Amino acid sequence: MNYTLFDEPSIRQSLLPLTFTRPVSLIRVGILTIAEKWEVFTNHKPLFLTEDYLHEKFPQGGTELCINGAIIPNVSLFEELKNLKEGEVITKQGLTVAYYGRPEVKKECQSDFKAILYPWDIFAKNSAEIRNDIALLDTKDKKWYTIEDHHTKAYNTDNIFIEEGVKIRAAVLNAEDGPIYLGKHSEVQEGALIKGPFALGEGSVVNMGGKMRGDSSIGPYCKVGGEVSNSVLFGYSNKGHDGFIGNTIIGEWCNLGADTNTSNLKNNYGQVQVYSYKEKKLVNTGLQFCGLIMGDHSKAGINTMFNTGTVVGVCANIFGSGFPDKFIPSFAWGGAEGFEIFKLDKAYGVAERVMARRKLTLEEADRNILKHIFDSTAK
Fold first, then answer.
1. Residue 75 contacts by C-beta under 8 Å, 6 or more apart in sequence?
2. Mean pLDDT of 312-331
3. Band of residue 256 on the pLDDT scale cut at 50, 70, 90
4. DSSP per position, 135-194
5. Is the peptide bond before 59 cis (omega within 30 degrees of 0)?
6. Taking a C-beta distance cutoff of 8 angstroms, is the pair 201, 237 a contact?
7. Which domains does the chain have, with CATH numbers?
8. What is the 3-state secondary structure of 187-221?
9. Nearest Cα residue to 231 out of 256, 243, 213
10. How buried is residue 353: exposed, middle or buried, by Cβ count under 10 Å (0-12/13-18/19+)?
11. In 3D, which of 175, 140, 148 has the Cα closest to residue 164?
């Protein structure tokens, strides 16, 4: 089944800054990205239909079956899409779900599904998606491993799913309220406390004494410590020290310095507003809990304090005392006392050094993406 995952422009705008550097379908929610979920269903890698400046890195499609990249697949929807005929387009409450070839005949989608339409949908739907992704991965041929460390205490071990090469030492894993997934060659260090639902990606580490409070997903090759609650790290990012993040989304190649903290609840217990790139103003999330939303390659210095519902763009560098603004643009350098422009050549240099630590290279396609973001957000 050859298919393309397309970005619906309005949804893509609503998901900025997370979609500055990736197609919508490469957002991680649960264990897998949306694209990886579709790959499990179809047994084929997708192509992408997204912004022109992203095509160099993400292979372009759009000739056959095209599926909205914000939509999370399920069995019912997948079966419906397999019966889609050339020239047909299916919609659900005004949302284009999929089309095959040149759309001419419009039909209403009969399946229910979930979609990621706003950044806060990621942590709001994360708990359920951890469960759904384990069901996707838990096939009859799948081999799960057991906890061998005698100093680790585990509750409801039938709900703990461990890939090969995982290292656990003197930790507590409680899967009574939801499953715990530990990806290949991940590590849980001494004194770590993990409460499900929780997912730890391949090669990632929960540092000594880390408190993972549940409903959280840590993507591949991350390091986490301190206190984490209902948050998602996309991958290759570090929150390795003490400090709290809650109801928070962190992109790739980010770093939170020691004792960085996010507020996720207003003092008056009111609904949280966040900056919308689409509306160019603060919008109401309708949520009582909402922390930090941070784009790729951004960094926070030690003791940084983020107010409730703060949005940080790409390649921003935040440091200093006090609370910075609730909206921090891409390539901003500074803090509560004001910002300067983080020059593009310096941003390249930092990205190169950070990626080299993971034995990866900042490719020309990556540079071109960052340059486009720098130029398009210059004002």
1. none
2. 96
3. very high
4. HHH--TT---B----TT-EEESGGGEEE-TT-EE-S-EEE-SSS-EEE-TT-EE-TT-EE
5. no
6. no
7. 3-117 (no CATH), 123-376 (2.160.10.10)
8. EECCCCEEECCEEECCCCEECCCCEECCCEEECCC
9. 213
10. exposed
11. 148
* Residue 224 one-letter amino acid: V
From CA 15, how far away is CA 120, in angstroms rounded? 9
Residues 75 and 37: their CA atoms lie apart, in Å, by 11
- pLDDT the model gives residue 292: 98
**Whether the predicted pLDDT of 63 surpasses 80:** no
- In tens, the pLDDT along 338-370 reads 999 999 999 999 999 999 999 999 999 999 999
Handedness of CA 10, 11, 17, 19 (dihedral sign): negative
Sign of the alpha-carbon dihedral angle for 339, 343, 348, 353: negative
Q: What is the dihedral of CA 7, 69, 15, 130, to 10 degrees?
A: -170
Q: Which residues, at least 6 apart from 339, have a Cβ–Cβ distance to it below 8 Å? A: 328, 329, 332, 333
DSSP-derived letter for residue 83 is T
Q: Is 238 buried (19+), middle (13-18) or exposed (0-12) by CB count in 10 A?
A: buried
CB 87 within 8 A of CB 98: no
Cβ-based neighbours of 46, under 8 Å, separated by 6 or more: 3, 4, 5, 25, 35, 38, 39, 61
Evaluate if residue 62 carries a pLDDT over 80.
Answer: no
Ranges of H-type helices in the chain? 9-14, 34-42, 75-82, 119-124, 126-137, 344-356, 364-376
Q: What is the pLDDT of residues 74-129, one digit of tens each?
A: 999 999 999 999 999 999 999 999 999 888 899 999 999 999 999 999 999 999 99
**The pair of three-digit structure tokens given for residue 214, joined into one six-digit string:** 């549940």
